[in-house]
Specification:
Oligomer: single chain
Number of strands: 14
CATH superfamily of the largest domain: Aldolase class I
Structural class: alpha/beta
Bound molecules: S-adenosyl-L-homocysteine
CATH topology of the largest domain: TIM Barrel
Distance between the termini: 41 Å
Shape: elongated
CATH architecture of the largest domain: Alpha-Beta Barrel
């Protein structure tokens, strides 16, 4: 028996590599399409199930590849119906994904890295530090492995890269994953308009991102002046607000599309009327809308959430100035599954990733 981990995860292979392998092994290329349908539509985990493919080819595939999946280490359910999945990777590192019920569909929030290097001061995941990038297979498997838990009528239609990690710091794997996620022919078939990648603002990678995917872009702005943003998000020292906004103004968007700017409201830090006015000026000429996110407080956080009245007032100032601003209450805060709370909490229950 070959060691399971010696075989390559077929989910990691590019179209080109797979095609080359098929050619080398003299297997007709139409089988490739069949295999992908089995994997992405039927959620197959074994080549032996692929009954429309000859036994000989199935055996060869089984001998050379595996169809990766992630170990569901723990699932926690929130009062509001959202579910947090803790996945254990093959090297025992842990990542999290959150399944969020909406009115008539589900949204899945996935991770792009184990840990995160960005050190945003208000974010709980940041406290883990950076562990490693996720492979294409590990990104895609979060979707495949959670989809199997859903009943037929429960539709998973939206994917957001707002879990652990900074997607634009793992750009090539994220782009490969996105291409499979939005491939309607032989991939997972999600609508490009329903897949959103959120970045802390790695301005230099926006162009490459836009050139390689049509997924939607969200930018975590969180402050409208450099002094506040420098303090909250160290990435701002590398790409200050002007550089980031310039990149956003030049970001190629289809006529109906807009960039979403996320703005976490922190009491007495970035939630004053002055801050709202600065934000309006900053977004002048940018095709964007604003998601206002009430801060999810956690143990040992140095920040407080803004008062509900302050949040409404902030929203009103933006709306009065023709900026679409939606208040996005995160779900799952009782199970630490809300925005920025995807940090692993107890070494005893989870293994290697530990929050201090
Ligand atoms: N690295 C990416 C994606 C992960 S964070 C990014 O920075 O966009 C996803 C969103 O959650 C970001 O907009 C971030 O600002 C927000 N966030 C982080 N911690 C939060 C918290 N404790 N409460 C509310 N929102 C938070």
């Amino acid at each position: 028996m070959p060691n399971l981990f010696e075989k390559q995860d077929i989910l990691n292979l590019s179209e080109q590599k797979l095609t080359d392998w098929f050619k080398t092994n003299k297997i007709a290329l139409y089988h490739l399409k069949q295999i992908k349908k089995w994997i992405y539509i039927q959620n197959s985990k074994s080549f032996y199930e692929m009954t429309d493919i000859s036994k000989k080819v199935r055996e060869l595939l089984e001998k050379n590849f595996r169809i990766g999946s992630l170990e569901k280490s723990k699932i926690r359910k929130s009062k509001d119906g959202s579910k947090k999945y803790l996945f254990k990777l093959e090297d025992s590192n842990l990542i999290e994904s959150v399944l969020i019920p909406e009115k008539d569909h589900y949204t899945l929030c996935i991770s792009s890295q184990a840990g995160c290097a960005q050190r945003c001061r208000f974010c709980q995941t940041a406290k883990l530090g950076f562990i490693r990038n996720l492979s294409k297979a590990e990104i895609i498997s979060q979707i495949l492995d959670i989809k199997t838990d859903l009943k037929k009528k429960q539709q998973l239609t939206n994917i957001v890269f707002m879990g652990m990690g900074e997607p634009l710091a793992n750009l090539s794997n994220v782009i490969s994953a996105l291409n499979t996620i939005t491939d309607s022919n032989t991939g997972l078939g999600f609508s490009k308009r329903r897949v959103t990648v959120s970045t802390c603002g790695i301005a230099s990678n926006l162009k490459k991102f836009a050139q390689n995917t049509e997924a939607r872009l969200a930018v975590s702005l969180n402050a409208a002046d450099n002094k506040t943003r420098d303090m909250l998000m160290p990435i701002n020292k590398k790409y200050p607000i002007e550089t980031l906004i310039y990149a956003c103004k030049n970001y190629p968007l289809k006529s109906r599309d807009r960039i979403t700017f996320e703005y976490v409201l922190l009491k007495n830090i970035n939630d004053s009327e002055k801050d709202a006015i600065k934000l309006i000026k900053l977004l002048n000429g940018v095709k964007g809308k604003v998601n206002l996110i009430p801060f999810n407080k956690y143990l040992q956080s140095e920040f407080e959430a803004s008062e509900p009245g302050t949040i409404l007032q902030f929203q009103k100032i933006l709306s009065d100035n023709n900026i679409t601003a939606i208040i996005r209450n995160s779900k799952g805060s009782d199970i630490s599954a809300a925005c920025g709370q995807l940090a692993v909490s107890s070494s005893a229950e989870t293994g290697r990733n530990t929050l201090l």
